[in-house]
């Protein structure tokens, strides 16, 4: 039966190489949901364009992200995996929704405030309206749940508000989506400044671990991660660096912070860090191997994202036509 399962949609921008924040906060959760939901996962290349990108790098990263989705365990037979720009309905619906979104709402978005502060003068209008494109991504698929890290909650709230506004002004058109925030790995912090979230667009490579970082680099970055001089492996606000390493380890092994604290009673930071590093290496090695193989198999990769775009377009176009009709645009 069509749509018996609830619908999930999520995406990651190809704006930098993916980090373990993206992996533990997003992709790993997606994999665990794939049997129970009708899922759509895209690489949101149009979102990446909101800040300046090098075209060759953007192309390479878009494909690499698809390979990472697959290598992490997303099965293209169970999930619709596609590239956002291959489904033009996203851009078209974003325009329509732009006409229902208020400047004030967009000005309150923390991600916009953070990013625009860093960019100074050259803040594009696209960066400002970025959450509206994200709302289009979500609403086009009658999405029930959007699995993301906790930083994206505000954007999903906006998608909900836009859906409700449109439904009230016209007639029920959109499903009102909910954020789905996993409890482990929801917020992996920067290794150098553990008050900030780990981000793929950080200037300092020691602040993040990339999914594709070689084992030695992972070991080095973890050994350099900022801790404290308390000397106890404890999950507490006073120890943001150590707490972050506990979160990372727990997100990989499935252990609770308290279990990890107990295991490391009386054990020093050096041993703890080395175990965290090994756990990451062990988790990522098979993924890295698979990504390399996939990137060499162009025809397979192409078949995945073309097939995905075709399936996604079918659903997205149906919703777009509905929106256009209700707004008074003349059908072709
Ligand atoms: P950028 O640094 O370019 O803003 P980002 O690294 O924050 O990007 P996004 O593309 O914005 O990554 O996010 C993709 C997904 O990964 C989202 O679901 C987001 O919540 C999740 N995510 C990103 N960083 C983290 C993190 N540090 N911890 C947990 N989840 C994260
Ligand atoms: N803004 C999101 C990326 C994103 C997204 C989406 C996530 C774009 N469109 C739709 C979920 C659903 C981010 O993680 N920075």
Largest sheet: 3 strands, parallel
Beginning-to-end CA distance, first to last residue: 30 Å
What structural category characterises the helix and strand content? mainly alpha
Report Rg.
Answer: 21 Å
How many β strands by DSSP? 5
Number of helices: 13
Lateral arrangement of strands in the main beta sheet: 1-2-3
What's the average pLDDT?
95
The distinct ligands, each listed once, are: adenosine-5'-triphosphate, L-tryptophanamide
Given as residue ranges, the uncertain stretches (5+ residues, pLDDT < 50) are none
Reading the helices and strands in chain order gives EHEHHEHHHHEHEHHHHH
Residues in helix, %: 40-55%
Basic shape: globular
The proportion of strand residues reads: 5-15%
How would you concisely characterize the structure shown here?
The chain is mostly helical and 332 residues long. The protein has helices spanning 20-33, 45-48, 55-71, 89-98, 103-107, 110-119, 125-139, 153-169, 215-223, 240-253, 257-263, 269-296, 298-327; strands at 7-12, 38-43, 79-83, 145-147, 178-180.
Note the topology.
Blueprint: E1 7-12, H1 20-33, E2 38-43, H2 45-48, H3 55-71, E3 79-83, H4 89-98, H5 103-107, H6 110-119, H7 125-139, E4 145-147, H8 153-169, E5 178-180, H9 215-223, H10 240-253, H11 257-263, H12 269-296, H13 298-327
Parallel strand pairs: 1-2, 2-3, 4-5
This protein binds adenosine-5'-triphosphate and L-tryptophanamide.
Describe this structure in words.
This protein has 332 residues and is mainly alpha-helical. Helices cover 54% and strands 7% of the residues. The protein is built from 13 helices and five strands. A three-stranded parallel sheet has the order 1-2-3. Strands 4-5 form a two-stranded parallel ribbon. Strand 4, helix 8 and strand 5 form a beta-alpha-beta unit. Helix 7 crosses helix 8 and helix 9 runs antiparallel to helix 12. The protein starts with 6 loop residues before the first strand and ends in a 5-residue tail after the last helix. The mean pLDDT is 95. The site of adenosine-5'-triphosphate (ATP) has 22 residues, from helix 1. The site of L-tryptophanamide has 13 residues, from strand 1 and helix 7.
């Amino acid at each position: 039966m069509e749509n018996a399962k609830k619908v999930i949609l999520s995406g990651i921008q190809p704006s930098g190489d993916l980090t373990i924040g993206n992996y533990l906060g997003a992709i790993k959760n997606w994999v665990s949901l794939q049997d129970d939901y009708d899922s759509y996962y895209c690489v949101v290349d149009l979102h990446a364009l909101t800040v300046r990108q090098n075209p060759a790098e953007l192309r390479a990263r878009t494909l690499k992200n698809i390979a990472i989705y697959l290598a992490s365990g997303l099965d293209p037979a169970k999930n619709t995996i596609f590239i956002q720009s291959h489904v033009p309905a996203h851009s078209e619906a974003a325009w329509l929704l732009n006409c229902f979104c208020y400047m004030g709402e967009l000005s309150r978005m923390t991600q916009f405030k953070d990013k625009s502060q860093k960019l100074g003068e050259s803040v594009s209008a696209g960066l400002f309206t970025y959450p509206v494109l994200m709302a289009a991504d979500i609403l086009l698929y009658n999405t029930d749940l959007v699995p993301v890290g906790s930083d994206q909650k505000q954007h999903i709230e906006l998608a909900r508000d836009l859906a409700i506004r449109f439904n009230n002004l016209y007639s029920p058109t959109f499903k009102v989506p909910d954020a789905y925030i996993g409890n482990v790995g929801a917020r992996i912090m920067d290794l150098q400044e553990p008050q900030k979230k780990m981000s793929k667009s950080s200037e300092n490579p020691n602040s993040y671990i990339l999914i594709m970082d070689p084992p030695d680099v992972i070991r080095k970055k973890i050994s350099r991660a900022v801790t404290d001089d308390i000397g106890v492996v404890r999950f507490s606000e006073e120890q943001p660096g150590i707490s972050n390493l506990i979160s990372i380890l727990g997100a990989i092994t499935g252990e609770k912070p308290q279990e990890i604290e107990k295991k490391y009673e009386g054990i020093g930071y050096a041993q703890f860090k080395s175990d965290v590093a090994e756990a990451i290496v062990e988790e990522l090695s098979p993924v890295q191997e698979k990504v390399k193989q996939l990137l060499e198999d162009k025809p397979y990769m192409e078949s995945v994202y073309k097939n995905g775009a075709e399936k996604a377009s079918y659903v997205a176009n149906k919703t777009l036509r509905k929106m256009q009709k209700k707004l008074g645009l003349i059908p072709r």
